[in-house]
Amino acid sequence: MAERRGLFSKLPAVVRPKELTAVLLAIAVFLTGYYLIGRHRVHPPLTASVAGSGGFTVDGTLETDEVDISSKLPGRLSQVMVEEGDSVYAGQVVALLEADEIEAKCRQAEAGVRAAQVQVAQGGVAVDLERLKSGDQADQAAAGVKAARAALGMARAKLSALEKGARPQEIAQAAEGVAASQAAFDTADKTYRRVKGLSDEGVLSQQKADEAEMAYRSASAQLSAARARLDLVREGARTEEIEAAREQVNQAEAGLRAAQSSLKMARDASLMVKVRQKDVEAARQKVAASEGALMEAGAYRDQTRIISPISGIISRRMSRSGEIVAPGYSILSVSRDSGYWVDVYVDENKFAGRSKGERVKVEIPALGKTMPGRIVRIMPAADFAVRRATNEKGSYDIRALRVRIILDDNLKDLAVGLTARVHFG
Length: 425
Fold this sequence. Notes:
Layout: H1 2-9, H2 17-40, E1 48-50, E2 56-63, E3 66-70, E4 75-80, E5 87-88, E6 93-97, H3 100-164, H4 168-201, H5 206-235, H6 239-269, H7 271-303, E7 305-307, E8 312-317, E9 324-325, E10 330-336, E11 341-347, E12 359-364, E13 369-380, E14 400-407, E15 419-424
Antiparallel strand pairs: 1-2, 2-11, 2-15, 3-10, 4-6, 4-9, 5-8, 6-7, 8-10, 11-14, 12-13, 12-15, 13-14
Helix pairs in contact: 3-6, 3-7, 4-5
């Protein structure tokens, strides 16, 4: 006791033996705990135990795909139709956005389509009318050209006849006419003289004498006419007649030119058919553009109906009716109700001989069931899952591997977060 007092007596007065013992004990406990944690910790929430020769068991939690449901459009939520824990199927409408503006856009696009279709119909009618009109004008103009050419030919023939004078046959015919008229006159003259003498003697009546005189005078007139015709034929046409015939030729040529010009204009008018057809094609392009706008508006309208991309359970609800959401902002989260897996961490020195595809058993303590599974992925663990030794006695660092096991069966009672105990054989 004296020695102990002497030893403690050398310490400062502020440090008491009991206090020093407590401090040393606390330091020892800390070092021991630090060493044990460094030797045995793989991942804080997971535990592992050896099961038989070469086998071991590792605890994990069930996981599955989780998808965030969001909107492509900004807007106000008019209705959220599901709650957390509700089951949904792929394609089910889970929320609605207010769509007044989009509905107005749809109606506007529909009206644009109808207006463009009316323009196409009107353009088709205009093409048909223009085609009929140009066809009739061309036919009439062609007939006019034909008639003008015929008139010109007749006028030129008349002028040529006048310029050349009478033909020998015409002169001979006129001379024969004079001879015949002369013979008729001589006969009428003799008859008149004979009847006149008999009438003066009282043998014939005065009426007979008058009739003979009338025949004489008629024969004389016909002879004069025949001689005049012969003179005209021999003399030819007068200058005034030739000039008039030339003027008729000029008029006929002008008429032909006018008819030909009308025909050209009628044929050029047929080009308006092509112009109208281009108008119809432009109207069809407007229809296509309007239909595209309508499809776009319809697509936006469809996007106001927010659907679940997968079948599963609503795990989280981030928004409520009346809130304004931005594009890509998560409204709901849905966890898939199939394809469950569990990730566990295994020391690399225990994983020797393991490989992808290996069959394991997965126990779900909460359900009291064990089902088969298989290793589908082997990945390096994160740094926090690395177990490191202190190197005090020549030991080496040991790394943990993250192993993913997928369940072969999808029981109805499975849920994300349940403890899954993986038994490696």
